[in-house]
Amino acid sequence: MTIKRRDFISLTALAAAGVVSSFKSYPSVAIAQTVDSNNILKSMTADVVPISVSERETRIARAQRLLKEQKMDALVLDCGTSLEYFTGIKWWPSERTLVAVIPAKGEVAYVCPAFEEDRFREQLSIGKKVFTWQEDESPYKLIANVFKNTGIISGTIAIEEKLRFFIVDGIQKEAPHLNFVSGDPVTIPCRIIKSPVEIELMQKANDITLAAIKSSVDKLKEGMSQDDLSNLIMAAQTELGGNADFALCLFGLSSAFPHGSKKPQLLKKGDVVLMDCGCSVHGYSSDITRTIVFGAEPTKRQVAIWNLEKQAQAAGFAAAKNGATCESVDAASRKVITDAGFGPEYKLPGLPHRTGHGIGMDGHEWGNIVKGNKKILEPGMCFSIEPTISIIGEFGIRFEDCVYMTQDGPKWFSQPSKSIQEPFG
Protein backbone atom coordinates (compact mmCIF):
# COMPACT_ATOMS: atom_id res chain seq x y z
CA MET A 1 0.00 0.00 0.00
CA THR A 2 1.38 3.40 -0.99
CA ILE A 3 1.39 6.03 1.74
CA LYS A 4 1.07 9.46 0.20
CA ARG A 5 2.44 11.55 3.06
CA ARG A 6 5.41 9.33 3.74
CA ASP A 7 7.79 11.10 1.36
CA PHE A 8 7.24 14.41 3.15
CA ILE A 9 8.40 13.09 6.51
CA SER A 10 12.04 13.70 7.27
CA LEU A 11 13.20 10.47 8.85
CA THR A 12 16.62 11.92 9.40
CA ALA A 13 15.09 14.73 11.43
CA LEU A 14 12.95 12.30 13.41
CA ALA A 15 15.86 10.04 14.24
CA ALA A 16 17.95 13.00 15.32
CA ALA A 17 15.21 14.42 17.55
CA GLY A 18 16.01 13.84 21.20
CA VAL A 19 13.32 12.45 23.42
CA VAL A 20 13.20 14.73 26.46
CA SER A 21 11.45 13.16 29.42
CA SER A 22 9.57 15.80 31.36
CA PHE A 23 8.61 13.43 34.15
CA LYS A 24 10.30 12.25 37.29
CA SER A 25 11.79 8.78 37.33
CA TYR A 26 10.20 6.26 39.70
CA PRO A 27 11.50 2.84 40.74
CA SER A 28 10.75 0.10 38.22
CA VAL A 29 9.12 -3.19 39.13
CA ALA A 30 11.65 -5.80 40.20
CA ILE A 31 10.77 -8.22 37.43
CA ALA A 32 13.75 -10.47 38.07
CA GLN A 33 12.34 -11.42 41.47
CA THR A 34 9.37 -13.12 39.84
CA VAL A 35 11.47 -15.83 38.20
CA ASP A 36 13.35 -18.54 40.10
CA SER A 37 16.52 -20.33 39.05
CA ASN A 38 14.48 -22.88 37.08
CA ASN A 39 12.77 -20.12 35.08
CA ILE A 40 9.45 -20.84 36.78
CA LEU A 41 7.24 -17.81 37.35
CA LYS A 42 6.19 -17.16 40.93
CA SER A 43 2.99 -15.51 42.11
CA MET A 44 3.37 -11.83 42.96
CA THR A 45 0.14 -11.51 44.95
CA ALA A 46 1.10 -12.77 48.41
CA ASP A 47 0.99 -9.24 49.82
CA VAL A 48 -2.26 -8.16 48.15
CA VAL A 49 -4.87 -6.49 50.37
CA PRO A 50 -8.41 -6.67 48.90
CA ILE A 51 -11.09 -4.00 49.24
CA SER A 52 -12.53 -4.10 52.77
CA VAL A 53 -16.18 -4.07 53.79
CA SER A 54 -15.61 -0.73 55.53
CA GLU A 55 -14.36 0.82 52.26
CA ARG A 56 -17.46 -0.43 50.47
CA GLU A 57 -19.62 1.05 53.23
CA THR A 58 -17.85 4.37 52.66
CA ARG A 59 -18.70 4.08 48.95
CA ILE A 60 -22.37 3.48 49.77
CA ALA A 61 -22.39 6.52 52.06
CA ARG A 62 -20.87 8.70 49.34
CA ALA A 63 -23.42 7.46 46.80
CA GLN A 64 -26.20 8.33 49.23
CA ARG A 65 -24.80 11.84 49.73
CA LEU A 66 -24.69 12.33 45.97
CA LEU A 67 -28.24 11.03 45.61
CA LYS A 68 -29.46 13.63 48.07
CA GLU A 69 -27.46 16.40 46.39
CA GLN A 70 -28.96 15.44 43.02
CA LYS A 71 -32.47 15.17 44.52
CA MET A 72 -32.66 11.49 43.61
CA ASP A 73 -34.38 8.96 45.84
CA ALA A 74 -32.57 5.71 44.94
CA LEU A 75 -29.97 4.19 42.63
CA VAL A 76 -30.63 0.86 40.88
CA LEU A 77 -27.63 -1.33 39.97
CA ASP A 78 -27.59 -4.25 37.56
CA CYS A 79 -25.19 -7.18 37.81
CA GLY A 80 -21.68 -6.18 36.79
CA THR A 81 -18.91 -3.82 37.80
CA SER A 82 -20.87 -1.22 39.75
CA LEU A 83 -22.66 -3.91 41.77
CA GLU A 84 -19.27 -5.34 42.74
CA TYR A 85 -17.82 -1.87 43.37
CA PHE A 86 -20.48 -0.91 45.90
CA THR A 87 -21.39 -4.30 47.45
CA GLY A 88 -18.58 -6.74 46.64
CA ILE A 89 -21.06 -9.09 44.97
CA LYS A 90 -19.93 -10.72 41.72
CA TRP A 91 -22.87 -11.89 39.65
CA TRP A 92 -23.10 -12.65 35.95
CA PRO A 93 -25.99 -10.80 34.23
CA SER A 94 -28.54 -13.24 32.83
CA GLU A 95 -32.15 -13.06 31.70
CA ARG A 96 -33.16 -13.47 35.37
CA THR A 97 -33.28 -10.05 36.99
CA LEU A 98 -31.02 -9.45 39.99
CA VAL A 99 -30.52 -5.85 41.14
CA ALA A 100 -29.38 -3.81 44.11
CA VAL A 101 -31.30 -0.74 45.24
CA ILE A 102 -29.30 1.92 47.10
CA PRO A 103 -31.80 4.35 48.66
CA ALA A 104 -30.81 7.93 49.43
CA LYS A 105 -31.56 7.04 53.04
CA GLY A 106 -31.59 3.60 54.59
CA GLU A 107 -30.21 0.14 53.95
CA VAL A 108 -29.27 -1.37 50.60
CA ALA A 109 -31.86 -3.87 49.34
CA TYR A 110 -31.59 -6.64 46.76
CA VAL A 111 -34.03 -8.36 44.43
CA CYS A 112 -32.93 -11.90 43.56
CA PRO A 113 -34.32 -15.06 41.91
CA ALA A 114 -35.65 -17.26 44.72
CA PHE A 115 -33.71 -20.37 43.74
CA GLU A 116 -30.46 -18.34 43.83
CA GLU A 117 -31.03 -16.86 47.30
CA ASP A 118 -28.70 -19.17 49.25
CA ARG A 119 -25.87 -18.75 46.73
CA PHE A 120 -26.46 -14.99 46.71
CA ARG A 121 -26.36 -14.71 50.50
CA GLU A 122 -22.94 -16.40 50.53
CA GLN A 123 -21.56 -13.18 49.03
CA LEU A 124 -23.63 -10.75 51.08
CA SER A 125 -21.64 -8.33 53.25
CA ILE A 126 -23.44 -5.01 52.67
CA GLY A 127 -27.10 -4.89 53.75
CA LYS A 128 -29.36 -7.76 54.77
CA LYS A 129 -32.59 -7.13 52.84
CA VAL A 130 -33.03 -9.73 50.10
CA PHE A 131 -36.40 -9.95 48.32
CA THR A 132 -36.92 -12.99 46.11
CA TRP A 133 -39.16 -13.76 43.17
CA GLN A 134 -40.27 -17.13 41.81
CA GLU A 135 -40.01 -18.08 38.14
CA ASP A 136 -43.69 -17.31 37.49
CA GLU A 137 -43.60 -13.95 39.30
CA SER A 138 -42.59 -10.44 38.19
CA PRO A 139 -39.27 -9.13 39.53
CA TYR A 140 -40.27 -5.66 38.38
CA LYS A 141 -43.31 -5.57 40.64
CA LEU A 142 -41.04 -6.65 43.47
CA ILE A 143 -38.60 -3.82 42.71
CA ALA A 144 -41.49 -1.34 42.70
CA ASN A 145 -42.51 -2.67 46.13
CA VAL A 146 -38.95 -2.17 47.37
CA PHE A 147 -39.25 1.51 46.44
CA LYS A 148 -42.60 1.71 48.24
CA ASN A 149 -41.32 -0.07 51.37
CA THR A 150 -38.36 2.32 51.45
CA GLY A 151 -40.77 5.22 51.56
CA ILE A 152 -40.40 6.24 47.91
CA ILE A 153 -43.99 6.97 46.93
CA SER A 154 -43.05 9.64 44.39
CA GLY A 155 -39.77 11.08 43.20
CA THR A 156 -36.77 10.22 41.07
CA ILE A 157 -34.96 6.91 40.55
CA ALA A 158 -31.39 6.91 39.24
CA ILE A 159 -30.58 4.15 36.74
CA GLU A 160 -27.00 2.93 36.42
CA GLU A 161 -25.78 3.20 32.82
CA LYS A 162 -25.41 -0.56 32.36
CA LEU A 163 -28.84 -1.49 33.68
CA ARG A 164 -30.33 -3.40 30.77
CA PHE A 165 -33.35 -2.02 28.94
CA PHE A 166 -35.71 -4.93 29.62
CA ILE A 167 -35.26 -4.36 33.35
CA VAL A 168 -35.72 -0.58 33.11
CA ASP A 169 -38.79 -1.06 30.94
CA GLY A 170 -40.28 -3.55 33.38
CA ILE A 171 -39.70 -1.27 36.38
CA GLN A 172 -41.18 1.76 34.60
CA LYS A 173 -44.36 -0.17 33.79
CA GLU A 174 -44.78 -1.23 37.42
CA ALA A 175 -43.94 2.23 38.82
CA PRO A 176 -45.21 4.76 36.24
CA HIS A 177 -45.60 7.40 38.97
CA LEU A 178 -41.82 7.62 39.43
CA ASN A 179 -39.32 9.61 37.36
CA PHE A 180 -36.36 7.65 35.98
CA VAL A 181 -33.06 9.39 35.16
CA SER A 182 -29.40 8.53 34.49
CA GLY A 183 -27.39 7.50 37.53
CA ASP A 184 -24.15 8.83 36.04
CA PRO A 185 -24.03 11.84 38.43
CA VAL A 186 -23.71 9.29 41.24
CA THR A 187 -21.75 6.34 39.86
CA ILE A 188 -19.13 8.25 37.87
CA PRO A 189 -17.95 10.59 40.66
CA CYS A 190 -17.70 7.58 42.98
CA ARG A 191 -15.79 5.27 40.65
CA ILE A 192 -13.58 7.70 38.73
CA ILE A 193 -11.62 8.72 41.86
CA LYS A 194 -9.58 5.80 43.16
CA SER A 195 -8.65 5.24 46.80
CA PRO A 196 -5.11 4.29 47.92
CA VAL A 197 -6.18 0.64 48.18
CA GLU A 198 -7.55 0.69 44.64
CA ILE A 199 -4.29 2.25 43.40
CA GLU A 200 -2.29 -0.50 45.12
CA LEU A 201 -4.37 -3.22 43.44
CA MET A 202 -3.93 -1.58 40.04
CA GLN A 203 -0.21 -1.26 40.69
CA LYS A 204 0.02 -4.97 41.39
CA ALA A 205 -1.91 -5.79 38.21
CA ASN A 206 0.47 -3.61 36.17
CA ASP A 207 3.52 -5.18 37.80
CA ILE A 208 2.21 -8.62 36.84
CA THR A 209 1.46 -7.67 33.23
CA LEU A 210 4.85 -6.06 32.69
CA ALA A 211 6.64 -9.08 34.14
CA ALA A 212 4.53 -11.41 31.95
CA ILE A 213 5.38 -9.50 28.78
CA LYS A 214 9.08 -9.47 29.62
CA SER A 215 9.22 -13.20 30.39
CA SER A 216 7.36 -14.03 27.16
CA VAL A 217 9.54 -11.83 24.94
CA ASP A 218 12.48 -13.98 26.01
CA LYS A 219 10.67 -16.94 24.39
CA LEU A 220 10.09 -15.40 20.96
CA LYS A 221 11.01 -17.73 18.09
CA GLU A 222 10.98 -17.31 14.36
CA GLY A 223 7.89 -18.90 12.80
CA MET A 224 5.66 -18.64 15.85
CA SER A 225 2.17 -17.21 15.43
CA GLN A 226 0.62 -14.19 17.08
CA ASP A 227 -1.64 -16.56 19.03
CA ASP A 228 1.42 -18.47 20.26
CA LEU A 229 2.78 -15.31 21.86
CA SER A 230 -0.63 -14.30 23.18
CA ASN A 231 -1.00 -17.69 24.88
CA LEU A 232 2.44 -17.33 26.49
CA ILE A 233 1.60 -13.94 27.95
CA MET A 234 -1.84 -15.01 29.15
CA ALA A 235 -0.34 -18.04 30.89
CA ALA A 236 2.40 -15.92 32.44
CA GLN A 237 -0.09 -13.40 33.84
CA THR A 238 -2.00 -16.27 35.42
CA GLU A 239 1.14 -17.88 36.88
CA LEU A 240 2.17 -14.53 38.35
CA GLY A 241 -1.15 -14.32 40.20
CA GLY A 242 -3.26 -12.15 37.94
CA ASN A 243 -6.62 -12.85 36.38
CA ALA A 244 -5.46 -12.74 32.74
CA ASP A 245 -7.84 -10.60 30.68
CA PHE A 246 -6.23 -10.21 27.26
CA ALA A 247 -2.99 -10.28 25.28
CA LEU A 248 -3.26 -8.77 21.81
CA CYS A 249 -0.06 -9.64 19.93
CA LEU A 250 0.62 -8.26 16.44
CA PHE A 251 3.52 -8.99 14.09
CA GLY A 252 4.84 -7.03 11.13
CA LEU A 253 2.18 -5.53 8.86
CA SER A 254 -0.63 -6.30 11.29
CA SER A 255 0.94 -4.08 13.95
CA ALA A 256 -0.24 -1.07 11.91
CA PHE A 257 -3.85 -1.97 12.73
CA PRO A 258 -4.49 -0.91 16.36
CA HIS A 259 -6.59 -4.02 16.98
CA GLY A 260 -4.92 -6.28 14.44
CA SER A 261 -5.76 -7.81 11.08
CA LYS A 262 -7.54 -11.04 10.18
CA LYS A 263 -4.57 -12.02 8.01
CA PRO A 264 -2.38 -14.56 9.85
CA GLN A 265 1.21 -13.52 10.57
CA LEU A 266 4.18 -15.72 11.41
CA LEU A 267 7.13 -14.12 13.16
CA LYS A 268 10.24 -13.39 11.12
CA LYS A 269 13.43 -11.53 11.87
CA GLY A 270 13.11 -7.77 11.65
CA ASP A 271 9.38 -7.78 12.41
CA VAL A 272 7.86 -5.20 14.67
CA VAL A 273 6.17 -7.03 17.56
CA LEU A 274 3.39 -5.14 19.36
CA MET A 275 2.01 -6.58 22.61
CA ASP A 276 -1.08 -4.99 24.25
CA CYS A 277 -1.88 -6.89 27.44
CA GLY A 278 -3.76 -6.73 30.70
CA CYS A 279 -4.92 -8.62 33.76
CA SER A 280 -6.83 -7.85 36.93
CA VAL A 281 -6.14 -8.29 40.64
CA HIS A 282 -9.22 -8.40 42.89
CA GLY A 283 -11.15 -6.76 40.08
CA TYR A 284 -8.67 -3.96 39.29
CA SER A 285 -7.14 -3.75 35.83
CA SER A 286 -3.83 -3.21 34.09
CA ASP A 287 -3.22 -2.22 30.47
CA ILE A 288 0.30 -2.09 29.03
CA THR A 289 1.63 -2.10 25.47
CA ARG A 290 5.23 -2.72 24.49
CA THR A 291 6.65 -2.65 20.95
CA ILE A 292 9.96 -4.25 19.96
CA VAL A 293 11.81 -5.41 16.85
CA PHE A 294 12.53 -9.14 16.77
CA GLY A 295 15.79 -10.84 15.94
CA ALA A 296 17.54 -8.12 13.94
CA GLU A 297 18.99 -4.65 14.24
CA PRO A 298 16.08 -2.16 13.92
CA THR A 299 16.02 -0.18 10.70
CA LYS A 300 16.52 3.59 10.76
CA ARG A 301 12.82 4.05 10.03
CA GLN A 302 11.78 1.73 12.85
CA VAL A 303 14.07 3.59 15.26
CA ALA A 304 12.81 6.98 14.09
CA ILE A 305 9.13 6.13 14.50
CA TRP A 306 9.80 4.36 17.81
CA ASN A 307 11.54 7.47 19.15
CA LEU A 308 8.75 9.71 17.88
CA GLU A 309 6.20 7.56 19.71
CA LYS A 310 8.25 7.85 22.91
CA GLN A 311 8.37 11.61 22.52
CA ALA A 312 4.58 11.75 22.01
CA GLN A 313 3.93 9.67 25.11
CA ALA A 314 6.25 11.85 27.19
CA ALA A 315 4.46 14.98 25.96
CA GLY A 316 1.13 13.54 27.08
CA PHE A 317 2.54 12.79 30.52
CA ALA A 318 3.94 16.32 30.82
CA ALA A 319 0.51 17.77 30.00
CA ALA A 320 -1.30 15.67 32.62
CA LYS A 321 -1.39 18.23 35.41
CA ASN A 322 -4.00 18.68 38.11
CA GLY A 323 -6.49 21.23 36.84
CA ALA A 324 -5.75 20.48 33.19
CA THR A 325 -8.40 18.90 30.97
CA CYS A 326 -8.42 15.35 29.64
CA GLU A 327 -8.41 16.72 26.09
CA SER A 328 -5.21 18.69 26.73
CA VAL A 329 -3.28 15.44 27.20
CA ASP A 330 -4.51 14.18 23.84
CA ALA A 331 -3.62 17.50 22.21
CA ALA A 332 -0.06 17.42 23.57
CA SER A 333 0.67 13.88 22.37
CA ARG A 334 -1.02 14.42 19.01
CA LYS A 335 0.91 17.65 18.35
CA VAL A 336 4.24 15.81 18.51
CA ILE A 337 3.02 13.35 15.88
CA THR A 338 1.41 15.90 13.55
CA ASP A 339 4.40 18.27 13.83
CA ALA A 340 6.49 15.40 12.42
CA GLY A 341 4.29 15.31 9.31
CA PHE A 342 1.75 12.65 10.21
CA GLY A 343 -2.02 13.03 10.35
CA PRO A 344 -3.41 15.56 10.89
CA GLU A 345 -6.04 14.64 13.47
CA TYR A 346 -7.06 10.98 12.97
CA LYS A 347 -5.81 10.58 9.41
CA LEU A 348 -3.33 7.85 8.50
CA PRO A 349 -0.45 7.50 8.66
CA GLY A 350 -0.64 8.90 12.17
CA LEU A 351 -2.61 8.54 15.39
CA PRO A 352 -6.06 7.12 14.44
CA HIS A 353 -7.68 7.02 17.89
CA ARG A 354 -7.82 8.84 21.23
CA THR A 355 -4.59 9.10 23.20
CA GLY A 356 -5.97 7.24 26.22
CA HIS A 357 -8.87 5.96 28.29
CA GLY A 358 -9.85 5.86 31.91
CA ILE A 359 -9.12 2.63 33.76
CA GLY A 360 -10.05 1.00 37.04
CA MET A 361 -12.25 -2.02 37.65
CA ASP A 362 -13.11 -1.89 33.95
CA GLY A 363 -10.26 -1.82 31.46
CA HIS A 364 -11.93 1.15 29.77
CA GLU A 365 -13.73 3.62 32.02
CA TRP A 366 -14.73 7.29 32.07
CA GLY A 367 -12.03 9.90 31.69
CA ASN A 368 -11.12 9.32 28.04
CA ILE A 369 -8.10 11.27 26.85
CA VAL A 370 -9.72 12.68 23.74
CA LYS A 371 -10.58 15.96 22.06
CA GLY A 372 -13.79 17.41 23.47
CA ASN A 373 -13.46 15.87 26.95
CA LYS A 374 -13.14 18.89 29.22
CA LYS A 375 -13.20 16.82 32.41
CA ILE A 376 -10.66 18.30 34.82
CA LEU A 377 -7.84 16.04 36.00
CA GLU A 378 -7.66 15.59 39.77
CA PRO A 379 -5.97 13.28 42.28
CA GLY A 380 -7.27 9.73 42.15
CA MET A 381 -8.04 9.66 38.42
CA CYS A 382 -6.35 6.89 36.42
CA PHE A 383 -5.90 6.70 32.65
CA SER A 384 -3.69 5.37 29.87
CA ILE A 385 -1.34 7.36 27.64
CA GLU A 386 -0.99 5.44 24.36
CA PRO A 387 -0.51 7.61 21.24
CA THR A 388 -0.20 4.90 18.56
CA ILE A 389 1.61 5.71 15.33
CA SER A 390 0.01 3.60 12.59
CA ILE A 391 1.58 3.30 9.13
CA ILE A 392 -0.56 0.93 7.08
CA GLY A 393 1.55 -1.24 4.78
CA GLU A 394 4.58 -1.00 7.07
CA PHE A 395 4.11 -1.28 10.84
CA GLY A 396 2.66 0.37 13.90
CA ILE A 397 4.34 1.50 17.10
CA ARG A 398 2.43 1.86 20.37
CA PHE A 399 3.52 2.38 23.93
CA GLU A 400 0.82 2.20 26.55
CA ASP A 401 1.40 2.93 30.18
CA CYS A 402 -1.21 4.03 32.69
CA VAL A 403 -0.91 6.82 35.22
CA TYR A 404 -2.62 7.77 38.46
CA MET A 405 -3.02 11.38 39.48
CA THR A 406 -1.57 12.46 42.85
CA GLN A 407 -1.44 15.81 44.63
CA ASP A 408 1.91 16.31 42.88
CA GLY A 409 0.69 15.31 39.44
CA PRO A 410 0.76 12.02 37.49
CA LYS A 411 2.76 8.94 38.39
CA TRP A 412 3.32 5.93 36.14
CA PHE A 413 1.97 2.52 37.07
CA SER A 414 4.58 1.05 34.71
CA GLN A 415 7.79 2.77 33.69
CA PRO A 416 7.85 3.62 29.97
CA SER A 417 10.30 1.92 27.64
CA LYS A 418 13.78 3.41 27.75
CA SER A 419 14.81 2.75 24.15
CA ILE A 420 14.08 0.39 21.29
CA GLN A 421 16.95 -1.78 22.54
CA GLU A 422 15.77 -1.53 26.17
CA PRO A 423 11.96 -1.80 26.06
CA PHE A 424 11.81 -2.73 29.75
CA GLY A 425 14.17 -0.05 31.04
Mind explaining what this structure looks like?
The protein has eleven helices and 17 strands. It is of the alpha+beta class and 425 residues long. It has two domains: 6-40 and 194-412, Creatine Amidinohydrolase (Alpha-Beta Complex), CATH 3.90.230; 53-192, Creatine Amidinohydrolase, Chain A, domain 1, CATH 3.40.350. It is elongated, with a radius of gyration of 24 Å. The two termini are 34 Å apart. Residues 1-33 have low confidence and may be disordered.
Question: What's the short version?
Answer:
This protein has 425 residues and is α+β, with helices and mostly antiparallel strands.
Keyphrases for this structure?
20% strand, alpha+beta, 425 residues, 32% helix, 4-stranded antiparallel beta sheet, 11 helices, Creatine Amidinohydrolase, Chain A, domain 1, 2 domains, Creatine Amidinohydrolase, 17 strands, 6-stranded mixed beta sheet, disordered N terminus
Topology of this structure?
Elements: H1 11-16, H2 53-69, E1 74-77, H3 81-87, E2 99-103, E3 109-113, H4 117-121, E4 129-133, H5 139-149, E5 155-159, H6 165-174, E6 178-182, H7 184-192, H8 196-217, H9 226-239, E7 243-251, E8 272-281, E9 284-285, E10 288-293, H10 300-319, H11 326-339, E11 356-358, E12 365-369, E13 382-385, E14 389-391, E15 395-397, E16 401-406, E17 409-412
Parallel strand pairs: 1-5, 3-4, 5-6
Antiparallel strand pairs: 1-2, 2-3, 7-8, 8-9, 8-10, 11-12, 13-16, 14-15, 16-17
Helix pairs in contact: 2-7, 5-6, 8-9, 10-11
